[in-house]
Design goal:
Number of domains of chain A: 1
Shape of chain A: globular
Radius of gyration of chain A: 19 Å
Mean pLDDT of chain A: 92
Oligomer: homodimer
CATH superfamily of chain A: Winged helix-like DNA-binding domain superfamily/Winged helix DNA-binding domain
Order of helices and strands of chain A: HHEHHEEHHH
Strand order of the largest sheet of chain A: 1-3-2
Low-confidence stretches of chain A: none
CATH architecture of chain A: Orthogonal Bundle
Distance between the termini of chain A: 44 Å
Number of strands of chain A: 3
Strand content of chain A: 5-15%
CATH topology of chain A: Arc Repressor Mutant, subunit A
Chain lengths: 146, 146
DNA sequence: GTTGATGCTTGAGACCGTCAAGCAACTCGG
DNA sequence: CCGAGTTGCTTGACGGTCTCAAGCATCAAC
């Protein structure tokens, strides 16, 4: 008998569980990145580069000041994982592009997130679909800018 | 017609969704904390103090070096939100305790996480129970130390 | 063209995080 | 009891992350 099974968890319990899983996943990500000599923030920025993105766009994506992006890109560029390209339409803009090496590294980091992958393996296809649908419902509330 | 509805989202999609929600919640937490002059890390530490906790225990909880905890507790103590008490059983140990003001502030921060609360309001009791159960299944995989 | 907005960088300052080193106190074998 | 090893905490050095204010170049609009 599992008398402690919460049939109706409080919002607080759910909130704490989400927070705990979020930080656990972040740790997993950070340690995978560290194995390749990257910080979590650097890896996250690298992960946003599906195509050329202006510095300003990165600041918006990462919800931080533009001057912060300068430093992060500086360090990535020094390692050859990223390039700054002039924008043909607007000479103020610098577009950031991942190099081949950059793309390869971020792909490896994602693949090496062992804890996250093994956690998701605990669910079958159907359960994952249910979880995805529920989380998708949370998104609009969470991403609204206060 | 919603043809794009993923009946069976890939692990990658699910992973990215979890990551997005995790960082959104963290931002929410950080901005609630900032309204009270606290950083997210300070608020997180404060939230762990249900009773007296030794410095070493905090380092373990926060998955960081003990010397890091020293600085964070220093700043919280300077604001009077936390106290260091000697441990009666072991004179090496210093137990950290939240002051009344500290308890009050962390409670307010939690209550003021508007985005998170409104996100959870999008689900009814039954859905929350389902979500909780699914997330609980993810925990063992995620929290295993690699 | 002048005015104003926008994109990026720089510099100062605070916090977060690690590591190495150090001191105090505990523990345990002898 | 006593010395050896361990553990708990702090300090100092150093790098990364973040914000703010200031500055330069460029664009847009009148």
């Amino acid at each position: 008998m599992t008398a402690a099974l919460p049939q109706h968890p409080t919002k607080t319990q759910l909130l704490e569980l989400v927070a705990a899983l979020g930080t656990a996943q972040w740790q997993d990500f950070a340690s995978a990145a560290a194995r390749h000599g990257l910080t979590a923030v650097q890896a996250k920025l690298l992960g946003q580069l599906k195509g050329p993105v202006p510095m300003r766009g990165l600041a918006t994506l990462l919800l931080c000041d533009a001057s912060n992006v300068t430093g992060i890109v500086d360090r990535l560029e020094a390692r050859g994982l990223v390039r700054r390209e002039p924008d043909p339409a607007d000479r103020r803009v610098k577009n950031v592009v991942a190099t081949d090496e950059g793309r390869e590294i971020i792909q490896r980091v994602r693949a090496e997130m062992q804890a996250t992958h093994s956690a998701l393996d605990a669910l079958d296809e159907q359960e994952r679909a249910t979880l995805y649908a529920l989380l998708e419902r949370l998104r609009p509330g969470l991403e609204r800018r206060a």
